[in-house]
Amino acid sequence: MPRIFWVILAAMLAAWLGMNLWTAPRIEELSGGLRLLDMRLTGYSRAEAQDFIAAIGDEGVSLYLGAQLWLDMIFPPLLGAVLFLCYRRLFPGLPGLIIGTVSLTYVVADYLENMALAAMLRAGADGLTPEMAATANQWTTTKWGLALVGLATLVIGIALRLRQRWFAA
Fold first, then answer.
1. Picking from 4-13, 57-66, 103-112, 148-157, which range would have the lowest pLDDT averaged per residue?
2. What is the pLDDT of residues 68-80, one digit of tens each?
3. Please, what is the angle between helix 94-103 and helix 69-90, to 10°?
4. Is the dihedral of CA 105, 107, 108, 109 positive or negative?
5. What is the pLDDT averaged over residues 140-154?
6. Weakest-pLDDT range from 27-31, 59-63, 160-164
7. What does the alpha-carbon distance between residue 151 and residue 21 come to, in Å, rounded to a whole number?
8. Which residue among 9, 20, 97, 126 has its CA within the 20 to 30 Å range from the CA of 84?
9. Could you tell me which residues come within 8 angstroms of residue 44 by beta carbon, excluding any fewer than 6 positions away?
């Protein structure tokens, strides 16, 4: 892998660690143990979103709209770049370019989710409309669906590469 891959990977891991060791645990602590909305693989209802926003209070909303959102805005493109480079390596030529480019849809979905979550947090539990919750939920489940497809593609690529090397030996 090129040197830039390792730099991007290190930056991605730093953002991931920041979210998973600092901001997300603190917000979940403020919520009384409720999972962050954007970490719910199967989504959430309006009532669940309202309960979460009410539970985290002003401190949680401030942390979510501040450090958590900032980290979650730098993490997706870094992850996208890491995956793009991995796919290009695992699937040489045009297939790698196509798979790598398609994998970037995850970044778009994550950004749209972040914008929808920010709107809900700014509206507060009482101002949260059914449409706001439905939109954010749609982007959350889309993001996780794309992430699972991306992970499956990565595993398949690694398996094919290992198979190719095993039979070449």
1. 148-157
2. 999 999 999 999 9
3. 170
4. positive
5. 91
6. 160-164
7. 23
8. 20
9. 37, 52, 133, 137, 140
Structure token pair of residue 53: 């926003």
Q: From residue 115, give the alpha-carbon distance in Å to each of 21, 30, 110, 112, 140.
A: 23, 22, 9, 5, 11
Cα–Cα nearest to 89, from 151, 161, 9:
161
User: Cα separations (Å) of 15 from 77, 130, 165?
Assistant: 11, 31, 33
Structure tokens at 2: 């090129």
Location of structure tokens 């930056």 = 11
Q: How many residues does the chain have?
A: 169
